[in-house]
Each structure stands twice: as structure tokens, then as C-alpha cells.
From TrEMBL:
GO terms (BP aspect): lactate metabolic process
Gene3D superfamilies named in the record: Alpha-helical ferredoxin, NagB/RpiA/CoA transferase-like
PANTHER family: LACTATE UTILIZATION PROTEIN B (PTHR47153)
Transport found in the keyword field: yes
Species: Chitinophaga tropicalis
InterPro entries for the chain: 4Fe4S_Fe-S-bd, 4Fe4S_Fe_S_CS, FTHF_cligase-like_sf, Helical_ferredxn, LUD_dom, LutB/LldF, NagB/RpiA_transferase-like
UniProt keywords, alphabetically: 4Fe-4S, Electron transport, Iron, Iron-sulfur, Metal-binding, Repeat, Transport
Record GO terms (molecular function): 4 iron, 4 sulfur cluster binding; metal ion binding
One Pfam family here: Fer4_8
Signal peptide (UniProt feature, chain positions): none
Keyword Electron transport: yes
Residue ranges of every copy of the 4Fe-4S ferredoxin-type domain listed in the record: 301-332
Full protein name: Iron-sulfur cluster-binding protein
PROSITE patterns registered for this protein in UniProt: 4FE4S_FER_1 (PS00198), 4FE4S_FER_2 (PS51379)
Length: 458
């Protein structure tokens, strides 16, 4: 078994038995579910809206090469600079080169999964550059030395008491502060950081081809502060975030808000289409957009898996997934967790090392049901499993076991040859460890229904 798979199983088993963790997650996801139910009421025909969004993303990716060039051309017209990064290291090297050119020692960064993907904070720290998270959830996680727990709500696994204890330990505040007081503490600590930073870094929820724009959605205003005060603005974004037209935002912004947090529209929605223009009073003097591949074209080449690139990172599939709700975000050991992370990570980081994630699913289909762009997530998990077998990432012993299971399952005569007691012994011998210490193994009856039926019918 691969080391990543062993680590995943170990963390999952530990977290699944943590009742305090489960209580916190169920409480937070319960609030989310209530909000989303209300948020969906803004759509007159939600099914049509989701289908239309899926079709827009399909067209965007089908013509991605043309849209990326159109985006570069339009952003460049307004003085922005576009950099193409084939992998994570190229993206990091380009950001470091900009930092050195600006003699940068301090960076403010708004919430960005792309920067988490390349481990930007730790990379910059090695070069003595401070990079401060300005999103409250991300700031909490940075203080605690942890990666984000969730795509949208990075500190979802922490209760308000956990955060109060963390602030007391790291910032010396009283240990019994309320959430409002904790927010004010974070605001006070971060305000000076915006003024001191030479560079502001953001991700992008969408990039818009026809205007050369970068759309950023947030609830706290920290992304606007991170781009308004520093003289240089760097955007790191995956190439799949493309939308053909600014008009598409009228659909995607409400969908992202509703499925992400249950809002009608997120509080702050900004479009950046270049550095400060002549006559404008604020904004950065320079703007760089780094278009990152980092394995995305691997998914693009796979005609079945390509659909996973439609994802708008709302996090709804995580909140719906019974596996995620029991094992938490950190057990996955990846940037993107939950069902969508289990689909894309093997393609982004290697099938051999991460194929185990595609088996971390009950295949209940709830993830597909709640996806705002109707990605067939559970079908793509099966696609990954099939691909792993085709490319020989499964052991010979496993293949033989499943072949034997298949032959027995297809033959009623073979199934009836073995008594229920023998089946129970077989389960204890070969499946007890995989089944887990916290669950009782299923018990086979001494006779199958088929045998009982035959005896009754004689």
C-alpha cells in the first residue's frame, strides 16, 4: 500500500472516532444547509440555471486555448502582465522573481486555493518574505500552523472556544473572547499589514476572456484591501477558471454565493482588469496574472474526467459527503478535499500516489445532486477506479481477489455451496481489519434466501 494511502486510512480512522469533531462539523454544516435552502429560493428555475452554467463551462473549456489568448490580449491592453506557468515550481519562481525585483519583504494574501496548491507561504518563508493570510478563516489556520480544512470555510472544524484559546496562546488575548471580539482582534492585527506590504496576492474565482478581467468574490473586504494598498498585485489562478464573457457572471456569481454559503450574492464582488489607470485614485501600479496549468491539461486530455474542471469551488459537495463529514478535510492530505478533490487530485498529483482517494466514497451520488454545475462526481470517481485498474496501479493479489469474488457472485450454485458459518469465518479472516474496529461485521444467515425459497417451494 502506498504511504499516502496508509496515512489517509490512519488519519481517517482516528478522526471518524472523534465525537467532538463530528459534533462541530455537523453543527456548522447544519447551519450551512439551512442557509442554502433559503438561498435557492432566488432562482425561478434552478435546474435550468445549473444546466446553463454547465453548458457555459463546457464551451469555455472546449475553446480554452482561444479564450486564454483573448484574456491575455485584453488584460495586456490595459497594462497588465500575463505569465504562463506550466507547473507549481514555475509559478513559485515567477512570484519570487517579482518579489526580488520589488525588494519585497512583506506580502498580504487573500484566500486562494491555488496558492495553497503550490504551498506559497512556506516557499516565501524560506526566502525571508512574510506572507500574511488576511481572510479570517485562513488567518486562524495560519496562526495554528494548519492548512485549510475546507475549500470555502478554512477553519470549519474549529469551535469559537477553539479559536479563543488559539488567540490567547498566539496573540496573548483573554481566553474567553466572543466571536465579535476575536474578529476585532484579527482586524487590528491585520490593518497595519496592508499598509506595510509591498505586494498583494489574490486568487481568482473566475477569469473573463472578453474583458481580460479577474473576478474575485469575498465576504470580508480583505481582498480589496490586499489589492488597493500594495503597489503590486499578483493573481495566481488555474487556467480552468475561464468564463467567455462578463455577462456570464450574472449567473455564476449567484450560483457560487448560494451553493458556497447560502447567500443571494456574496458581499464583495470585484473585477480587476489591469493596474491603476490614468486619472484613477487607487489600485496597484502593476498587476501580474499567473495562469497556472500544474496538471490541469492532464484532466483536459481525458474526455471523461474533463467535466471535473467545471468546478467553481463552492464546497457544496464536501458539505454533502458522508465520508467528508466523518473524516474531515485534513485526513485527505491534499489541497482539494472531499468528492471533487478525490476526483481531480489523482490527475493533478499522480494516479499512483492518490488513487486511494477515489475509493473514499460511498458512491451515494449526493455530491452530484448538490453540484451547482451538475458535475457527475460519483461517476468520475468510478472512472478513476477504472483508470487505475487499466493502468495497472492495483496489485495482482487485489485483481485475483476481485476476480474470485466476481465468479462466485455470478454463480448462485457457488454461493450456495458455502454455508453462512463459513462465510462469516471468511469475513473475519480477510475483512475484519478493513471493516474497522468501530463497526461490527455483517453476519450471514446459515441459509441464503435462495435456499430457503427452494425449500419452501420444494
Amino acid at each position: 500500500m502506498h504511504q499516502n494511502a496508509s496515512s489517509f486510512l490512519e488519519k481517517s480512522e482516528k478522526k471518524a472516532g472523534d465525537l467532538g469533531h463530528r459534533q462541530t462539523i455537523n453543527f456548522n454544516i447544519g447551519k450551512y444547509n439551512t442557509a442554502v435552502k433559503a438561498g435557492k429560493q432566488q432562482f425561478a428555475d434552478l435546474t435550468t440555471a445549473r444546466e446553463r452554467a454547465k453548458n457555459i463551462k463546457w464551451r469555455a473549456l472546449d475553446n480554452l486555448d482561444k479564450h486564454l489568448e483573448e484574456f491575455e490580449q485584453n488584460l495586456t491592453k490595459r497594462g497588465g502582465k500575463v505569465i504562463w506557468a506550466e507547473n507549481a515550481q514555475q509559478a513559485l519562481d515567477e512570484i519570487l522573481a517579482i518579489c526580488k525585483a520589488k525588494q519585497c519583504k512583506s506580502i498580504v494574501k487573500s484566500k486562494s486555493m491555488a496558492t495553497e496548491e503550490v504551498h506559497l507561504n512556506s516557499f516565501l518563508a524560506k526566502h525571508d518574505i512574510e506572507c500574511v493570510e488576511t481572510d479570517l478563516g485562513e488567518y486562524i489556520q495560519q496562526l495554528d500552523g494548519e492548512p485549510p480544512y475546507h475549500i470555502v470555510t478554512p477553519a470549519m472544524h474549529k469551535s469559537k472556544e477553539d479559536v479563543a484559546r488559539l488567540f490567547a496562546e498566539k496573540l496573548g488575548t483573554p481566553p474567553d473572547l466572543t466571536p465579535q471580539q476575536l474578529t476585532l482582534v484579527a482586524r487590528e492585527k491585520l490593518r497595519q499589514k496592508y499598509l506595510d506590504a509591498e505586494i498583494g496576492i489574490t486568487g481568482a474565482n473566475f477569469i473573463i476572456a472578453d474583458i481580460g478581467g479577474v473576478a474575485v468574490t469575498e465576504n470580508e473586504g480583505n481582498a480589496r484591501l490586499s489589492t488597493a494598498f500594495p503597489k503590486t498585485h499578483i493573481v495566481l489562478v488555474g487556467i480552468e477558471k475561464m468564463l467567455p464573457s462578463i455577462n456570464d457572471l450574472a449567473l455564476f456569481w449567484p450560483l457560487l454565493a448560494t451553493y458556497g454559503t447560502g447567500q443571494n450574492v456574496t458581499v464583495y464582488n470585484s473585477i480587476f482588469s489591469g493596474p491603476r489607470q490614468e486619472g484613477e485614485t487607487d489600485g496597484p501600479e502593476e498587476m501580474y496574472v499567473i495562469l497556472m496549468d500544474n496538471g490541469r491539461t492532464n484532466i483536459l486530455m481525458d474526455t471523461e474526467a474533463r467535466e471535473s474542471l467545471y468546478c467553481i469551488r463552492c464546497g457544496s459537495c464536501l458539505n454533502a459527503c458522508p465520508v467528508y463529514k466523518n473524516i474531515g478535510g485534513h485526513s485527505y492530505g491534499t489541497t482539494y478535499s472531499g468528492p471533487i478533490g478525490s476526483v481531480i487530485t489523482p490527475h493533478l498529483r499522480g494516479m499512483e500516489s492518490y488513487i486511494h482517494l477515489s475509493y473514499a466514497s460511498s458512491l451515494c451520488g449526493n455530491c452530484t445532486e448538490v453540484c451547482p454545475v451538475r458535475i457527475n462526481i460519483h461517476e468520475l470517481l468510478l472512472h478513476n477506479r477504472h483508470k487505475a485498474v487499466e493502468e495497472n496501479y492495483t496489485s495482482g493479489g487485489e485483481k485475483m481477489s476481485w476476480f474470485g469474488w466476481k465468479q462466485a457472485s455470478l454463480s448462485r450454485r457457488m454461493m450456495n455451496l458455502v454455508s453462512g458459518n463459513v462465510k462469516n469465518l471468511f469475513m473475519k479472516k480477510f475483512f475484519a481489519k478493513a471493516w474497522g474496529d468501530d463497526r461490527e461485521l455483517p453476519v450471514f444467515a446459515s441459509k441464503s434466501f435462495n435456499q430457503l425459497w427452494k425449500e419452501r417451494r420444494k
